[in-house]
Description:
Strand order of the largest sheet: 1-2-3-8-7
Radius of gyration: 33 Å
Number of helices: 6
Structural class: alpha+beta
Largest sheet: 5 strands, antiparallel
Strand content: 15-25%
Shape: elongated
Amino acid sequence: MAASSSSKAKAEPPVPPVMKRSMLAPHGPQLRPQYEQEEEWQEFCERTDASKLHDFGRYWWTYGRDEDDDGFLREAVFLEVPLRKDIEAKQIRANLTTKHLQITVHGESVIDEDFEDPKWLNVSESYWEIEVKEVKQVRRKVLRYVLYILMESPKYITQWLFLSEKTEDDGRFVDQNEEEEDNIDDRLRMIAKMKEPEPHRDADIWFSETEEEEERWCDGCGSTRIVVMKKHTDSKYMKYCNDCPFVSPAKETSLPTGLMKQKDIDEKRARKARLKARKEEAKKRMQAEKERVAGEPDRTEEVPEDFNKSEKTRMYTDEEFNDVLTKALRRGEIKWEDY
C-alpha cells in the first residue's frame, strides 16, 4: 500500500508557481509604436528622458523625484555645484526666488543665474545640503540644491534650467525655432498619436486582405474588372481586362504580401539596430580617448574616506535635546544668524 501511494504521488503533475507581477512586467510598461513612427517616438523619449545629466562644468542638474518630509514622492530638479573640501555650511549663502538663484561660497559667487521659466518653482519648500559623492572618479563635496516643482505646474524641466543655457558665447540662441515647452498636454498628445503595430505573424499565417496590394487593376485603362489566369499559351499568370484588350503580367511573390511587408520591416529594423550599435561603439571609443588625453583626474579637492567618521548619531528625548541646545547656546557654539 505504501508503494502504491508513493507511485500515485509521483504521478501527480507539478503545481505551477504563482505568477508575480514582476515576472510579467519586470521593467514597467513600454510603448512600441508602428515602424513608421519609431524614429519620432525615440526622439521624443530622448528629449523627455529624466535620467539625462545636463553638465555645464561649474554645475550640473538632473530631473527626477525626491521624497519629502511626509513620505510622498515629488518631482524636483537636482542642482549640484562642486565645492572645495574645506567649505562648511556656515560659509554658504543662497538667495532663491522664482526668477533668480544666487549662491555665494565664502564670499565668492558660484551661481548667479536667471531661470529660463519663472512659473514652475516652489521657493518655500526647496532646500540645499552638502554631501560627499564621487564626481569624475574623485570623492568631492558638492552642494545639492533640491528645487521642488509646484503641484499645479504642468511643465517638465527636461530642456533648460537657466536662461544662459539657451545662448552661445556670442549671444546667439542655441535654437531659434525652439519647439513648444515640455508639458503634460504635449506628452499626452504624442502618446495618443502613436499607433499600435500589426502583430508579428509566423510564416504559416497568411493575411486575408491583400487585393489592393496585389495590384488587381488593369495597367492599361485602370479598370478593376480583370481576371488573373494562366492560359496554355502563357508562360506565367497574366491579367486580362474585361473592358479593354490590354494584357499584362500579374504580380507574383513567393510570400503573401502581408508577410512580405513584415519581412521588409524586420530587415529595416535589423539594419537600424546595427547602425545604432556602431554609433554606441564609436561614442565609447571617443570617451575612452578623451579620458586618455585628460590623464589622471585632479585630486587636490578630494575628500578622504574617513570624512565625518568620528561623528555619531545620538538619540535624545525632547527634554535632553532642549538641555543640550541651551548649553551649546550659552557656550557660544551655536549662533543665530539672520539670512
